[in-house]
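Reopening closed ticket. The problem is back. First fold of the pair:
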Amino acid sequence: MEEAASVTGEDILDVTQESFQQAVLDESHQRPVVVDFWAAWCGPCQQLMPLLQQLAAQYAGKFRLAKVNSDEQQALAQQYGVRSLPTVMVFRHGKPVDQFMGVQPEPNIRAMIDRYLEKPSDKILEQAREQARTGDVDGALATLKAALEEDPDNGDLRIELARALAQSGDAEAAEAELNKLPMDQHEQDAVKELRARLVFAKTAAGIDPQAVAKEIQSGDPSPEALEKMAAYAMLSGRAEEALGLYLQLMKQHRAYNDGAGQKGLLAAFKVLGDDHPLVGQYRRQMASLLY
């Protein structure tokens, strides 16, 4: 084990229910906070604590170690579902993102902490996102492609590149970038949402919005018109219009394009998220058509 570097009272501290918000949740927006739930009677806790303290010293402020005496702070331990001791959780951006129970080898603990440390790529990602937000999509693409040349295995950079490519209108290139991701990242919510957006982008490609809108207003639109306008509405931020059109497509042309109405609704739900007020409403209407 490396010798300790330096540690301050800001890097290792005891935390109570009263101080948890500021010491852990608020601080986790600045750096990872490793919370050790322990007790004086717990032998493995006494074995693990010196290792965590030495790691905190070696990392020299890159993360905070917060110690919670679970006997004295039972409500806090219960709040975070602590069932056995020691339990160690990593907090980042206001919420627990990783954990382990019992005593773990030092390399395993280091690997867990390292996952949540700020990396040089984090600043590149923020730069690219700001470029895309301000309309400089070409600049964002250049930033991300250059960064990936230096760090080709960085999945976060690749996801952001796919997002920028989708924003530029190149849905096929965006999908190709997502397909390069390792399998475990395919299940991330950000990737699923982006894939759903790409479905809309492909469907709406080449649309003439005025002509399609006129056809829909005629009262007898083709299923293709309904599908294209629904996708275009989702891309344009008009979620309620999109959901209504997909529902209409499902009602009037259930089998069209292998169930495009239902598939469009499901893709829209992924993009909007379960907490969006429209999702529950339209999910119920979709279910009533199915059952």
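Second fold of the pair, where the issue appears:
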Amino acid sequence: MLGQVILSGILIGFVYSLVAVGLTLIWGVMDIINFAHGEFLMISMYTAFWMYALLKWDPLFTLPLASFLIFAISFLTYKLIIKKVLDAPGLTALLATFGLSLFIRNLAQFLWTPNYRFITESIVTDKKIAFGTLIIGMPQMVAALGSVLMTGLIYYFVKKTRMGMAIQATALDRDTAKLMGIDTEKVYAVTFGISGICVGVAGVLLSTFFPVYPEAGALYSLLAFVIVAFGGFGNIQGALLGGIIVGLAESLGGFFLGTQFKYAVVFLLYLLVLQFRPKGLFGW
């Protein structure tokens, strides 16, 4: 049973990591906290659900559509909101994204009601894989593998491509990057868009085994903040490992103390880490 719990924690941890990667990119490059990050994920989950309910599309086939949609929403969020407050005091951008998150959440409740909705007949539903005594649900396995693949692609993009180098340079020093001819405006817009792709993919993967409802993104957004603080701001590897730690803490806490305490364990661990590593386990 303990092995099953650990495995489940690792699998969900990979999905948490993908959500956190998008947030850590914005935080590391732009020094902005995007409170609407979880709401973008919720929109992705609803995209998967409505494509399934109205057109009978399997959620996995909705991945490109949801990713493009959340990329576009994130890009427009930067152009219409973040760009206006980028040079304002830090609290201004925070409140702007917080207001956006409230607007999206309440709009979703108005349009789709607070009811829980489920995708019950995807190609991975009710399928399992057995490794000896360990049993893995196919939705969780696919979500974990998809999240690892997407995180790897984002890491490669940031570390190996020309735009990725520009993102790193802008994160280190915006003014110097400008002097070197880097279009920091474009870098910011692309970074925001990439963060949207991360939650777009994560939202579709989560919709195959988690309920879809307007408040769905709030929890993942909060956990993503914890993971980013765990791993260090702007650190993709840190977000990946931080997600695994949070997933394990959640699963083991629920197993030993009860499900009502699983998030308490996560936040207690977070507070303990900050006592010794204020910049996160992998921050510098």
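Update: turned out to be a display glitch only; the data is intact. The longest helix spans residues 2-30. The beta strands are 128-131, 134-137. Please close again.
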